[in-house]
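Recall that a protein's primary structure is simply its ordered list of amino acids. Everything else, from secondary elements to tertiary packing, is in principle encoded there. The following example makes that idea concrete.
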Amino acid sequence: MHEQDPVRCRSAVLDQLRYLIDEIAALRQISPRLHESQITNTDRGPSVKQCYGAIIMRDQNKILPALKTLSGRKVTPEALSMDWNSVPIKDILVQVESVRRSVIEAAEDLSVEAWSQQVTEGMDVGQFLLTASQHDTDTLRTVAERLYRSW
C-alpha cells in the first residue's frame, strides 16, 4: 500500500468493507415492505437480488480465496451458478453478510506487513480490497437506482 501509515490505511480499508454490512442491516429494515417485483425486475440490467448475488460470488470465489492463499491456506472457490431471483431476499442478505464477515476476518488475520504482498498484477492487499470496496459502491448505487425506480 502506498500510504505512509500502513496501520491506518489497513483500518480504513477494513472500515470500507464493513460498510456493506451496515447497508445490509439498513436493507433488512425495509425488505419486508418490498414487493418481489421490485427486487427481481431485470428490465434494465441486473435485479437487486442479482446485484447482491454478484457480491456474494466475488467475495466467495475471488477475494476470500486470494486472502486465504496469502495466509498459507488453500481454498477452492465454490463455482455456484444460482438464479438469485429465485432466492428469498432475506437469505441473500444473510449470505452477503456472512461471506463479507469471512473476508474481513481473513483480511484481519493477515499481518500489516502481509498487506504489502501482491495479490494480483500490480495490486497489493490494500489495493485489492479497496477495489472490492469500490465495486461495492457501484453495486449499491445500482441497487439504490433499482429501488428508487420501483417506488
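The chain has a mean pLDDT of 90. The CA atoms of residues 40 and 47 lie 5 Å apart.
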